[in-house]
Please model this.
Amino acid sequence: MAAIKWVLASDIDGTLVGHGGESELAQFLAQRPDIGVVYLTGRTRANAEMLIRRHGYPDPLAMATDIGADVYWGPDFHVDENWAFQQRRDWSPRRVMRALDGVAGVSFAGRSSHWRLAFQVRDYHALSAARTALVQEGVVQRTLWDEDEMRLDVVPRGALKGRALKYILNRLNVRPQQCFVAGDAENDGDLMEGRYHGVLVANATIRLADQLPPVIVRSPYEGAHGVLHGLRQFLDEPAAVMETEYAG
Ligand SMILES: [Mg+2]
Model:
């Protein structure tokens, strides 16, 4: 722990995994024990852990799953009870179910994890009816819309990657300037609001790319290649400045 100088805080799907370059990045990180890795993912813990291991990525300093609903600490992946308690405080799956029960064109598609309720939505009319119903029921929540699958996920209000990362870095006593973020999709958006340096990989969604602050590099490379490219730049340039700053 004492040797950690930098943190790579990264999304998994589409960023670390799925577009090539996984083994190059894993090798680079294996040679740089001064870089700790925090994984921020929409996946569940078991699922994310399996992917990390399959690609030889380092054990996490911490991992936020379900887009930040849960925080686990590495290397043994024990859950952060304090964080889970905060999520639980205003999270009521029963009220979500009640609000959406009977909304035409909306059907419960299962619980993909402890925190995530998935609903299949027939069309945009049904989507807007679902959103209205949640507001009317006064349910405190956050929704994620998957346009390709016509699926609406309902998660706790505090389930945000950026919020989880801030909590993790505070606990680790790591400053924002020491952290480099990487992502590809809209649920990485709150990591890229300018608090941290970072990279948006080439395969990322356009909508996010339009609103990037200058500390976020748009990589010409996809997936893990993009992360490696951006991370190297970060370590070469701002790192030099910051090292002198920290020397005192
Ligand atoms: Mg992703």
Remarks:
- The chain has two domains: 6-86+159-247, 92-155.
